[in-house]
Amino acid sequence: MEIKTLQYFVRIAKEESITRAANALHITQPTLSRQIKDLETELDVKLFKRSNHKIHLTDEGILLKNRAEELIEMSQKIQEEFKVIDKNIEGNVYIGCGETKGMEVIANIFKEIQIHHPKVHFHIYSGNAEDIASRLDKGLLDFGLLIQPVNLNKYKALDLPTFDHWGVIAKKGDPLSEKNYVTKTDLSKEALICSRQVLETDIEENEFAEWFGHLYKDLNIVSTFNLAYNAGWMVKADMGYVVTLDSIVNTSVESNLKFIPLEPKLIAKHNLVWRKDHTFSKAAQTFLEKAIEACR
User: Fold this and answer.
1) Which one of 125, 174, 184, 292 is least enclosed by Cβ atoms within 10 Å?
2) Domain region containing 99
3) How many domains does the chain have?
4) Alpha-carbon distance 167 to 229, whole Å?
5) What is the similarity comment for this entry (predicted)?
6) What is the reported pTM?
């Protein structure tokens, strides 16, 4: 199985047409059809099904497309790294980031490297902790910017000098929105909307759970989320209160939502992490050195 064949397969899946894919790839339709037929024979599965002049992926095809895209991305990353291996510091740095103020530190490091090494390019992948960890484990990212609570056992990590504050998002005019802060007692009987990350049970030090103490196990969590923007819509629909970090959900003057901090204060620290066995390019190694300096 060759990378080029997987690239052909992914293109067909996107175009939903062998004819359009062949035109885009600048090869003949019979050649492309034969490549896919050979791939199906090699894997002993059917990858496509036809309907209404289009072709669609089978369940096996969907699985292969996901794996093929990862392999293609990794192949491109390897080629990019070896193109600059004997040159001055240049190339690409891949970082996964959550929605956090910690991005300010990362951006400042980017700018400093850009001044001295203009041929270094940065690629940001935005996602939650689960998405970022998955891409780190597959080698598709050099670094991840994660927000506590998170399990760091698999990674090397730096503590960034930044943090977010935990609080609650409520509609303006709601009784909770009139408070300067909210306590665990205020929230103990309310309908709550929480990030899936803070509900994970395998985190050794879950400061979120510790803040609620004995009330944690009895919280009325009506919904979970992985993107706080979507959670804001659930508040607007009167589903409950979002327990989240400041500066993520829009609570500007124009918004009808308000952020109220927790009391006692609870902060979420930020960590820059990387795989313990990860091999860095010159560009990624330069970024790490600058990050270590920024965290001293």
Assistant:
1) 292
2) 91-161+270-295
3) 3
4) 15
5) Belongs to the LysR transcriptional regulatory family.
6) 0.69
